[in-house]
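Team,

Forwarding the record for the chain on the shared tracking sheet. I've put the sequence and predicted structure together so nobody has to dig through attachments.
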Amino acid sequence: MRRALYPVIGLLVLTSFLLGMLASGARGGRAQALPPHAAAPVVVTAAINTPPAPVSAAVDFAAVAERLNRSIVNVDTAVRGDLPDTPRRWQRDSDDRGPREGSGSGFIIDPSGYILTNHHVIDGADRVTVTLSDGRSLHATVVGADPAIDVALLKIEAGAPLPAAPIGQSRALRAGEWVCAIGNPLGYVHSVTVGVVSFLGRKLFDQSLDDYIQTDAAISFGNSGGPLINARGEVVGITTAISVQAQNIGFAVPIDQVMNVLPQLRENGRLSRGFIGVVLTSVTPQLASALSLGRVRGALIQDVSLDTPAARAGLRPYDVVTAIDGQAVGTDDELIRAVASRPPGTAADLDVVRDGVVRHMSVKLTERPLVEPTRASRVRTDLQPAESRRGGPLGVVVTALDAAAVRRLGVPASIAGVLVTDLDATGPAREARLRRGQIIMEVNRRATATPDAFAAINGALRPGAVAAIFVYDPLTDQRLIVSVTIEGRSPL
């Protein structure tokens, strides 16, 4: 009798096991379909002493857009004649003659009617009109503008308080963080696009002031001046530029940079920044090794412009600024911000390391000029490779800087060196971004006035060594110091 029950008991056990598995699977299915704001289940791994991953709520940009849409405005401009040329940004119209109209975006930052947008949206406009989310169109006054970071402050009179967008902190952004852009691309008002922060601190137009947020959130013509918004619904940037060479590569001015200049825009209508007239780079470990700087940290001077405060104070290339007014300087960006924050006409005391000796130098600041357009369109660099010469350890082929090259490239009389005519595609100099058409003036602070002088210095470099190359670039009309690490083989 008992033996007869064994199959029944076994069947009951198997059935209970299968029902338990089905119930477990059903619970698992419900866990995967959590509400938008519910916490995701923590996955426990077999790693010992590994803390669980942080739990985060789902990003709800639909709610963000619903809250902020009332703060987003359309900015329309009209010009009696030609709009100013805007080669750095977007052309707003294809017709260069007669009256023209343009359109961009903006957002309200104060209930009294202050609005932020891009400078290039309103630049040269004879009439600026703001259209609110409720359909009202109001005349706007340009309170102030800063072309250097491409921001403008507008003011409208609406007769009642307006909904202002909450302002966040761009310095808290991280690469990979979700963001959205709201604007009026191609006239499609209040369009919402979503992406991530692709890069922070991108340099595009002005190597000293630029600090752009790069994002893959879709940005098109007409988005200019609209907000870039984080997952908390806070404005962290102003969309301002796109790459014409690729899709979904857009850029925004960090909101922290904008808020720093806002008081001056309100009070004075313009920005007045301190300026000394140098081209800087940070002291990297490679440059420190090549220039025997030891543990010195600071901003390395690559070039000093003529008739500037730096030139009058006696600053030179290869000088390293380690402090300004007693405040330590760790990077070139830190020195640029410190100088730009000081008013023109004031004096700045610099600690400068020159040839291992610390010097104290005083520089009287002037007002920062606007950056001039690149010389690239006026300089020809179509050079023929000098196939008879080998690239040596640097992987650089050079020739003498003759009178014809000086005329073609517009090289100043003060520049002496050898002309780069070719680079090994896999060589160290190419990887360090040297280009054909540049002029090598020194290697490790030794002059390279002739191809023979360059060949002697180049041939003496050994694998593993770091070379500091002092270069003049005709495209930017600037001198640069570039570090190149010699590889274990000698490229052709």
